[in-house]
Amino acid sequence: MKPLFLFFSLFLFAALLGQTVPNKSDANKLVNARYQQPTWLINLSYKAAIPSGSLALRYGFMNGTGLDFYYKSKNNFLWGLNTCLFFGSNVNGIDYINIFKDANGYLFANDGNPLNITASMRGSQLLGVVGKLIPGFHQKKPQLSILLECGVGFLQHKYLFNAPNTLQFSKEYLKGYDRLSNGLALTQEIGLCNFGLNRLINFNIGIEVTEAFTRNRRYYDYATGGTDTKSYADILYSLKCSWLLPISSQDKKQPLYFK
Predict the structure, then answer these.
(1) Contact 212/51 with Cβ under 8 angstroms?
(2) Alpha-carbon distance 142 to 167, whole Å?
(3) CATH class label, 22-248
(4) Angle CA 169–170–174, to nearest 5
């Protein structure tokens, strides 16, 4: 494995050395030309998210990993699809599972041994988005632009319990107390986007706010002995960091320059 890794490292290093480095004026022209090209973008993203509203009653800090697909027009408008999976171990409001414990506060596995339940959260997000890149640093940093984006879609979340070899928390019964909730979601983002001459150094850092209007989708809740019909306002504040992979439709005869 090491020789293969060394080979590709040397190959990449040699490729970089073999590129012609343009002067600053030429580099700026190339960056500006890139902004004017229709481009497909694939983004790998990470979110550090803090819940608010009804969502904060259930969960604390959570992580998110996502994959985004965009089309950027020559006028720097964006249309795309954002996906994200959320996960976290900081959960609140799960005291209702005490109904499964005995008088001494123990829960027993099927073999009669006491065990501890671990709880976490799982969630997902699917959004259709539109946005605009505003190149606001033409003179000194032409590769930088401001990203404004909004979207509409779907947000879902639930509790995830881990209690192996326990009948009460087997797959058949989890639906009675995982409190799966989902609903319409709106999102807004403002960020800073970089399109360098080196296509490996393309990134976006922004603040994203999501508002979702959710309901519990389980018909019956074992803890309450009924159905939760309330509507909830879930809010999520996220620091979003993305690595951008542009797939450009530029002329193949045009050389690719690197900084």
Answers:
(1) no
(2) 61
(3) mainly beta
(4) 65
